[in-house]
Design a protein that fits this description.
Length: 256
């Protein structure tokens, strides 16, 4: 088992106590080697953590692509991440565990309630460490929406609102957040609808983001497509980039 961060820090403190007792002339002979040893002690847990996080992302990608992941590999990946999360002040390990839960829920609908509850708990733990992360708030909104059987309950709306408030113009959560907003439109209040409209307008003004908007438009229910155009117009934006992308996709425009 790889040493934990706390174990490495304890070893480092012990090394420094040893250094204080080493005669000055000995530094000239062994100082370089000793410094190298200290750096190794510091790096081992970080390297192991980075490796575990990287492997977890590969497992998540496999699940999202519909590939079968052996149960022992899932259990080992989750166990490593759980151990890392105990001493991770950034919250990132909890966020990766939540993403793993969401991927498992999509791959195994029969167990999705348990997975979504686990995702919700991990995201709350992650956000307690980094409360301004707009992507994590969007994922929490998604988990709450799934737990509420496809309804935007109070928990969903609160998480969605925090995601808009902490990063309305950040590109990373835009597509995910807009899709959820359109699905839950009837449950959103005026402020959340206004935030979704502002995001649609922001996306329509960018060639790159309007490509993402076009894919959302294409994958939306036919009844939702006129709403997207209405919101673009209401914000004083132009649908020209959207229309160019749709023409490339050969998607007919929504009827007026």
């Amino acid at each position: 088992m790889a040493p934990s961060v706390r174990q490495a820090e304890a070893r480092l403190r012990s090394a420094f106590r040893f250094l204080a007792r080493v005669p000055q002339h000995a530094w000239l002979r062994g100082g370089g080697a000793l410094l190298g040893l200290i750096l190794i002690l510091m790096a081992v847990p970080r390297t192991d953590d980075a490796w575990a996080l990287a492997r977890a992302r590969h497992v998540i990608a496999a699940l999202e692509q519909g590939q079968a992941v052996p149960a022992p590999l899932l259990a080992e990946t989750r166990g490593r991440l759980t151990r890392i999360a105990e001493s991770d002040p950034s919250g990132r390990s909890h966020a990766v565990l939540a993403t793993l839960d969401l991927a498992e829920a999509a791959a195994n609908p029969a167990d999705q309630i348990v997975a979504m509850l686990s995702a919700e708990n991990h995201l709350k733990a992650a956000l307690s460490r980094r409360p301004a992360d707009t992507v994590w708030w969007a994922r929490l909104a998604h988990a709450r929406y799934r737990l509420a059987a496809g309804r935007a309950d109070a928990g969903t709306r609160a998480a969605l609102r925090r995601s808009f408030d902490t990063g309305l113009r950040e590109a990373a959560p835009m597509g995910f957040r807009l899709q959820l907003s359109l699905r839950a439109w009837d449950d959103l209040d005026a402020d959340l609808r206004g935030a979704a409209a502002a995001q649609i307008a922001e996306m329509s003004r960018s060639w790159e983001l309007s490509g993402l908007l076009a894919r959302i438009y294409q994958n939306s229910e036919p009844a939702a497509r006129p709403l997207i155009r209405l919101l673009i117009d209401a914000q004083g934006a132009s649908p020209k980039f959207l229309d160019w992308h749709l023409a490339e996709m050969q998607t007919p425009p929504a009827p007026e």
